Hints:
globular; alpha+beta
Amino acid sequence: MSEHQDGNRERSKWLSQRRNEGFFIEKINEYVYEMNGKRTNIKFANLRKDNLFWFNTSFNRLREIEVFVWLCGKAENYYVVPCKKMKQLIDAKNWFDKGHNRPEFCINLNHEYLPANIDISSYHQNLSSLKP
């Protein structure tokens, strides 16, 4: 199965879990949802050979989104990061530039945001940013 198919399956599973918890969810497009009135970007990555989950975002997304959800391999392993925190990381140049004008970054198995080595364990399975 491709990463795209895995992502669709795990995103659907994660959204179903949130609906069961009473979240109001409206789909905007494949990756963007309105969740309890907050525009949310939900992305997925499989674990790579370097034991990292690789993600990217765009500068436009940083202006449009209120909350980012990073699904790491399975719907049960996720981070819910407010846009304010993402903007702080991106504005501080804490991202990899692979020449696509799209910030890329990783999350490792120790709950660290790379390349900055910042502990993001407080965002792991923490839904408080999505609650009304």
